[in-house]
Amino acid sequence: MSRGSLAVVVALVLASGCSLRQAGINRMAAALAASSSVYDADNDPEFVRAAAPSTLKTIEMLLSQAPQHEGLLLTACSGFTQYSYGFLHVESAIQRTNASGARELRQRAGRMYQRARGYCLRGLAVRHPEITADALRGGSDVLSRTTSRDVPFLYWAAASWGADLSLADDQVKRIGELTAIRALLTRARTLDETWDHGAIHEALIAVDGLPPLVGGSRAAARADFDRAVALSQGRSVFAYLAFALTLPEGSERTAMLERAAAIDVQQSPSRRLTNLIAQRYAKALLGAAR
């Protein structure tokens, strides 16, 4: 065999090995992405709390081999956000009487949200390299080329970023980051306002429910809430919880929390886990108010 022929054979073997590895990663990525829907439908939050970390770590291991795999990046982006909210953020609020424990949970949640946001922005940058955290702080122009395909990344980037900011000790110093969060959600709403049964509007409730001094509007928050309820057919506990958290202590806030606690989570199997976690938070808030 000539040296030229040998080189061709070696190249083909190497290419075949790379393609087989990529095929394997793609299969694993598809399986892991599908696992998120299995978790979403679970009726045992404690079981998911124990199982999810190994899944998330496996995703990170695969990303070390395929750092630009959009499916893996989206699963990491959404998975770390959901884990942080469900098992660290909410838990820190429920354990408010244990100051040191609650603070540790908030710090862990913040780090987890930051990790999630990193994956979200990496996912957006695969097809839009101009989208960076710094560019987003400058406004929405950098998002002009995004399409409906990007909506999941836009939503989860905003959700993880906003949740991290809500827990930060230095919120005043970071107030400018609201520009990026609002830009991501506004663009997602423009591209597909019905996405995931109104999830974008649910996220906007918290943003628009902020004080007017930082761009909030009670009327806008209520409109977000009404639209979220309509798109979810009244089956999203989080919509009622999110709106309740924008209200001052009083009868309207209590009524919203009671409605959140009364929703039958079995009516929406695909959101069962999220609803159960949000319902636990709502019930804890009701208990603390009594």
SS field, number of helical segments = 12
The percentage of residues in β strands lies in: under 5%
Largest sheet: none
Report Rg.
Answer: 21 Å
CATH architecture of the largest domain: Alpha Horseshoe
CATH topology group of the largest domain? Serine Threonine Protein Phosphatase 5, Tetratricopeptide repeat
Number of strands: 0
Q: Roughly how much helix do the residues carry, as a percent range?
A: over 70%
Shape: globular
Order of helices and strands: HHHHHHHHHHHH
Query: What do the pLDDT scores average to?
Result: 91
Span of the ends, CA to CA:
86 Å
The CATH class of the largest domain, by name, is Mainly Alpha
- Output the structural class: mainly alpha
Domains, number: 2
Q: Quick one: CATH superfamily of the largest domain?
A: TRAP transporter T-component
- Poorly predicted sequence stretches spanning 5 or more consecutive residues: none
Structural write-up:
With 290 residues, the chain is an all-alpha fold. The chain folds into two domains: 163 residues, Serine Threonine Protein Phosphatase 5, Tetratricopeptide repeat (Alpha Horseshoe), CATH 1.25.40.920; 98 residues. Helix content is 74%, strand content 0%. The protein is built from twelve helices and no strands. The longest helix has 38 residues. The chain starts with a helix and ends with a helix.
What labels would you give this structure?
single chain, 290 residues, mainly alpha, Serine Threonine Protein Phosphatase 5, Tetratricopeptide repeat, 2 domains, 12 helices, 0% strand, globular
Précis, in short:
The chain has 290 residues and is mainly α. The protein contains 12 helices and no strands.
